[in-house]
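Example 3.2
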Amino acid sequence: MNQGPDIPISAPGGVLAVLADNVIYLVWLPLLLASRNFADRFNLWAKVPADRLAIMDAASAEVIDRERLPEMRDYIYLAAIASAANIGAAASAPIVAAFHRASLVPVSILMALIGYALGNYLAPIAAHLARMAVGQPA
C-alpha cells in the first residue's frame, strides 16, 4: 500500500500546522466564547453609555422577532458556523451557532454532518490535486 511521500513528522511545516490547529481549537474558540462573560466590564472600560446598550438590545430584539429574507450578516453567521464545523465538526459548530443565534443550531449540526459525509470522499481528491499542483506523481 502506498503511504504517499515520506514526510517526517518533525518537518517545520507539519509542526506549525498541528500547532496552529491546536491553538485555534483549544485556545481561541474558548476565549472567543468566554469573552461574552466579560462584556459588562468591557463596556464599563470602554465607557459605553447604558442608554446606547439599551438601544442596541431593543434593536436586536426587533430583528430577531420579525421574519425577513436573508441578509449579508446572516451569511456571515453561516460562514462563522461553517468555519467552526470545519475546525471542530459537530463538537464546536453548535456552540458557535448558539453564540450567534440559537435558531441556527440545527443548521450547524447539519453542516457538520454534511462535512463528515463529504469530507470522507473529497479529502483524497483534494490530496491528489495538491500532489498534482506541486508536481509529485500520483
